[in-house]
Amino acid sequence: MSENLYDRLAGGFPADRAKPCFLTSDGAAISYGALEAGAAQVAGRLIALGVEPGDRVALQAEKSPEAVMVYLGTLKAGAVFLPLNAAYTAAEIDYFRADAEPKVFVSDPPAFVAEAQGAAPLEETVARAAADLAAIIYTSGTTGRSKGAMLSHGNLAANALALHEIWGFSAEDVLLHALPIFHVHGLFVALHCAFLSGAPMVWLPRFADAEVLAGLSRATVMMGVPTFYTRLLANPDFTRDTAAHMRLFICGSAPLLPSTFAEFEDRTGQRILERYGMSEAVIITSNPLDGDRLAGSVGYPLPGVELRIAGAETGVVEIRGPSVFSGYWRNPGKTAEEFTADGFFITGDVGRQDPDGRVWISGRAKDLIISGGYNVYPKEVELVLDELAGVVESAVIGVPHPDFGEGVVAVVIGQRGFAGDEAALIAQARAQLAAYKAPKRVMFVDELPRNTMGKVQKNLLRERYAALFGSSVVVAR
Ligand code: AMP
Question: pTM for this structure?
């Protein structure tokens, strides 16, 4: 039997294909029937262009329903989907092209779909086995050259089915989709949950306050990154009423601050459901739909996922399970380095696990600071700083220090009107932390550099403050 993910997803489409799939902000709707027809036409066109099973089809474009048709048409044709961030420069694209060697590169999905309408649509989905590749997702590459995570039809199907089940999706749902679709969050997590339920999506090209607020009145579930939530909370028009008929707010891709979780609950009476995932495995853990959603915890491993902490009580998270990728594209060396002998993927995230299985993530192993020979976990320091009066958010990094190897530096966003007294903050931090953990310097900024998924780019902060202690040597990571 074919295990092509396309057929799995299409199995969830509503029996009445006239039902809407995309509700766009101009008030129009695109039906599931139109999505299915578009995918079949794209698949037909790709095959006419000479695409064979296993060939890569790259897409770099703004978000659109047609881009989704290209994604589904690629799967249907048995090819491998390669989404690329719309913000990548020509030089970056050159690298991906050389590495992945796509047979077709789509940069204008509406034009491609219009052109495909002239081709014979592919009726029968090309058969694929569970282990065959469905997509290559290049990791964000903040620590060296971007690597292509190879995800199979089986990997993606297993994750989609598990999420659909544990988050209680049904045909009654309407998903607010404001995420980019070049990343696993918007592409796999969100789209697959909607498809498997045959549910419509309020389809927004990006997160814009007014459109999201209007969209919430039609939606039942929103998936977002933490910045979506801080932006909603910063808007006085976001009230308990706006959120009243939403059944679920899901958050991930970067840590959700406990203060955001608490403020959201105060404002709306609802608890955000935080989950944890990555390009290499899609979703790994989730807080429960029914049961305790706790601030600062990413919840329990998904059914079928084995999760363990390497070494001591707090250590690197290792995972094994049906959604874990098979390796990095054309990079057996990296693949071998990042899997243990017994087949667990070494995530690079540091965390701990309660006896009942609940997981807490405390940062990236690569962000660990070693100051004067002592390990400093940035998250521990950030949690202390974030509680101090006047501090909105902090990012703690290590930069070269002539005596300590690395010196702890806090980059802090202060509340509006906060004068920012460096010495006072350091003293307050010292009162709660061992001296070696307390920041040696505090830098006040208006904003932290973040990538499109809301992750703080600590590598950029490390570069910016590399010479703070008089050394210009940049620590290689
Ligand atoms: P990416 O492959 O771009 O999706 O990035 C994956 C990384 O995002 C993970 O390895 C984590 O470091 C981080 N991440 C994702 N979700 C969470 C979360 N809920 N809490 C903390 N970190 C997260």
Answer: 0.90
